[in-house]
Amino acid sequence: MINMERRKRVMQRSIRLGHCICDPKQPCPCPLFKEKNVCSCAGERLESPTGSVRLTKLVEKAGCASKIDQAFLKKVLADLPASDDPRVLVGVPAGDDAGIYDMGNGQALVQTVDVFTPAVDDPYTFGQIAAANSVSDVYAMGGVPMTALSIVGFPVRSIPDEALFQILAGGIDKMKEAGCAIVGGHSINDAEIKAGFAVTGMIDKDRVVTNAGALPGDALILTKPLGTGIVALAAQIDRVKPESMAAAAASMTALNKTASELMVQFGAHACTDVTGFSLMGHLAEMARSSGMDVQIVWDDLPLFEGVLDYAAAGILPGAIERNKESCSDRVVTPATLPQEMVDICYDAQTSGGLLIAIEQEKAADLLKALRDRGISAAAVIGNVTAKGTGLIRLETTGKREIPAFKSIKATEPSQSSIQDVPCCADAVSTVAPSSWRGRPALASRGHPFDFAQGRLGLASPSHDAPVTAEQQGQDALATAAGPQAGSEMDQVKATFQQFLSAAGSPHGLDAYTKQATAIALSVALRCEPCLKMHLKNARQKGFTQAEVDEAAWMGISFAGSPAMVFYENVKRECEV
Of 15, 26, 150, 568, which is most buried with the most CB atoms under 10 A? Predict the structure, then answer.
């Protein structure tokens, strides 16, 4: 029940100030009040939504790709004062996975914190990944996690409350598996979902494994496959294969506990966990801190199912470029290695594996022990070559090739499309066939257009046969001037808009090719608003003028000189 007295009192304050007191960017009364009759400043709340939610659709960058890049961080942190406490054994300047604090009795504290956005859609799984990723820094130092504080950002009342419960439940269960007690936490109302933990562990002061101890001749072992960032992007744009997502989720939720115990047991010289800065970013830090040069064999890198196909299709996250900027100057790459293969090495990993440097004579035994304990993806990926400046040489034997591009079928339809459907989208018949009523949205599953038959494949509720032109014509005659023509017209327009969205979305053809096709068709049809919109979108996608002209000439080649005059006029107008 609304407390009208409180609402009046609070709104009077806001109106006098000229700003909503709970969101100064808004006027009073705010849009929420106008639309929903809810005054959040007076403590009134929207009802929480219900139902399922896809977390990766709610964030801009998924998983550890949401972290600030390494180059920027180093620039900002460079002039900050370091701790002069002699009990700090490993601190900020080391650039290691966690901090180490001497307790004075042969024991030391290992402390770390990690927070990021969802890399998967399921809230419970995301909570598990957030926990596994957070304790991984402790494991990378050879420590044992003891306690944790949860950190959560959540858009309250924007998505179901149940999602927050599941995120926390997943984190609690994974921390319980790690033997780590959650003793508290902190939450904020945030537009983007984030979760993570501040973790404290214990370690024998004389058995700390840092990223600075690699020695010449050491083998480099990676315990988990690469490609979580690429798989997460594929999921965000609805191009992921179920087996890829399942494998990545299983890997991200797996603790590095066993790998940590074994690397300590076998006397590893150095270790780091591979997360947001990518394999190359974390290896570059290990090589630099150790004063060594290293060699990596591309063909020996463990990869998730489908990652090569995604890379061939151009499904490569922007975090790759940020990671390149941070460390590519320390990586020597052979000219024979395709760029897509190189890019995979810079993919930001979420809850990735341990990268272990261990003497060559012990590498085979450690690898066997890892695999015997269920870490089947563990592999020797290279070696420490000699003392140096931290250079990485990426080599290839030629055994593994990037596949030819092929269409990757989406598990669910993409809602992204060529933006801003033009005015010609409203050019729908004024009579709505009754056979369209109650039909599923055209973009619901699969391809809604029958290209072989050249017609819309509108499946009826009872069978999958396309609606023929004759059937549509009969329906149109039966419903012409009917009392429901207006409402059916709205359904037809909405359905057609959905068709346009599906047709414009990348499926067999990528978004770049479809944008060029849209330009050609706009020119051929001489649709001025269509062409102006698609020229704008093409520029935003990075088209050069030569590429735009080439696409336009495809349309001109079909439509002739009137289309050429039309294109030149519109292009001139857009340039003014």
Answer: 150
